[in-house]
């Protein structure tokens, strides 16, 4: 499981580096600015078109969005997400292969995690 989390972290770092090196952030800002120009806030008629809910007509509630998630929260997935978070916070010791015994757990120091 620790190896999968380490691979996920490496992939996410490479993906973020590719995004940062590309022109995507600027293009994204331009797209948002163009959308804002075409859809200015503050129109009184919009709330009536939404049925008075205060949300855009096609938006979902938090619960609806949660139930449409394409994955489950199995113990393996939760552990993988936990390990990926640990790698992001603590990093993996250089030159060492990832193992569950070296990953710090909440409430334990790095020294205690390696013992």
Automatic annotation (TrEMBL):
Q: Which domain of life is it from?
A: Bacteria
Q: What is the protein's name according to its record? A: Uncharacterized protein
Which source organism? Clavibacter michiganensis subsp. michiganensis
Compositional bias segments (type: Basic residues): 105-115
Region annotation (Disordered) maps to 35-61, 94-115
């Amino acid at each position: 499981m620790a190896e999968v989390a380490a691979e996920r972290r490496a992939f996410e770092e490479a993906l973020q580096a590719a995004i940062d090196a590309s022109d995507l952030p600027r293009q994204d800002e331009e797209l948002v600015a163009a959308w804002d120009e075409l859809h200015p806030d503050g129109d009184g008629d919009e709330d009536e078109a939404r049925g008075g809910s205060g949300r855009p007509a096609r938006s979902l509630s938090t619960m609806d969005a949660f139930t449409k998630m394409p994955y489950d929260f199995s113990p393996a997935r939760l552990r993988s997400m936990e390990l990926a978070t640990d790698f992001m916070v603590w990093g993996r010791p250089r030159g060492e292969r990832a193992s569950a015994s070296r990953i710090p757990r909440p409430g334990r120091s790095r020294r205690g995690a390696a013992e």
